[in-house]
Write a structure and sequence with these properties.
The protein has 217 residues and is of the alpha+beta class. The chain is 28% helix and 22% strand. Strands 5-4-3-6-7 form a 5-stranded mixed β-sheet. A 3-stranded antiparallel β-sheet has the order 8-10-9. The radius of gyration is 20 Å and the shape is elongated. The protein starts with 19 loop residues before the first strand and ends with a strand. It is found in: Cytoplasm. InterPro entries: AhpC/TSA (IPR000866), Peroxiredoxin (IPR050217), Peroxiredoxin_AhpC-typ (IPR024706), Peroxiredoxin_C (IPR019479), Peroxiredoxin_TDXH (IPR022915), PRX_1cys (IPR045020), Thioredoxin-like_sf (IPR036249), Thioredoxin_domain (IPR013766). Keywords: Antioxidant, Cytoplasm, Disulfide bond, Oxidoreductase, Peroxidase, Redox-active center. It is an enzyme of class 1 (oxidoreductase).
């Protein structure tokens, strides 16, 4: 790969690269989805075993994404016809409909925009990526998986929940956080703002140390 072909990854907290693409649901343009969160995920190829299990899992949890105002969009470097045939096959195999669009990225335009091609893994297939784009079109998180490890859909939903909870409450979410668990309040930025354990408790905070206080939301 020459220097001019080197891919750059999109960066967190910057606008997600816009695109228009053919999908199993017709043409879509990312910027037309403002107002909704988007989970854009790539898979290596149609008619492959691990990808098939993932699509079945995404389909079974689709209503949970809808409740969170999330639009799922799949992608691979296959044609629309291949996607349609595979989706039809999956519906028979798993007994669920695949309700989200799947991008046919034959020209690798979207794959290159989002750094989905990793030559050491495969020159012509996308690795397993997940991009979390908020309702303002900002890229908020991304996860990369190798070809031979399937994704955990519960973790993808957990990331959405954590991002939305943090946005709504001005907080952060600690390790292993699940909805309903305590969240982390912002740490003090000045010496004067540091509170004692008693002062924190009076505000209903769970005081761990001066830079770590938690609360329920």
């Amino acid at each position: 790969m020459s220097m001019s072909e080197v891919q750059t990854l999109p960066r967190l907290n910057e606008p997600a690269p816009d695109f228009e693409a053919n999908t199993t649901h017709g043409k879509i343009k990312l910027s037309d989805l403002r107002g909704k969160w988007v989970v854009l995920f790539s898979h290596p190829a149609d008619f492959t075993p691990v990808c098939s299990t993932e699509f079945g899992a995404f389909a079974r949890r689709y209503e949970e994404f809808e409740k969170r105002n999330v639009q799922l969009i799949g992608l691979s470097i296959d044609s629309v016809q291949s996607h349609l045939a595979w989706v039809h096959d999956l519906e028979k195999a798993f007994g669920v409909k695949i309700p989200f669009p799947v991008i046919a990225d034959l020209d690798m335009k979207v794959a290159n925009l989002y750094g989905m091609i990793h030559p050491a893994a495969n020159n012509t297939s996308t690795v397993r990526t997940v991009f979390f784009i908020d309702d303002k079109g900002i890229l908020r998180a991304m996860i990369y998986y190798p070809m031979n490890v399937g994704r955990n859909i519960s973790e993808i939903l957990r990331v959405i929940d954590a991002l939305q909870t943090a946005d709504q409450n001005g907080v952060s979410c600690p390790a292993d956080w699940q909805p309903g668990d305590p969240v982390v309040v912002p740490a003090p930025a000045t010496l004067d703002a540091i509170e004692s354990e008693e002062e924190a408790a009076a505000k209903g905070l769970d005081y761990k140390t001066w830079y770590l206080c938690m609360k329920k939301v």
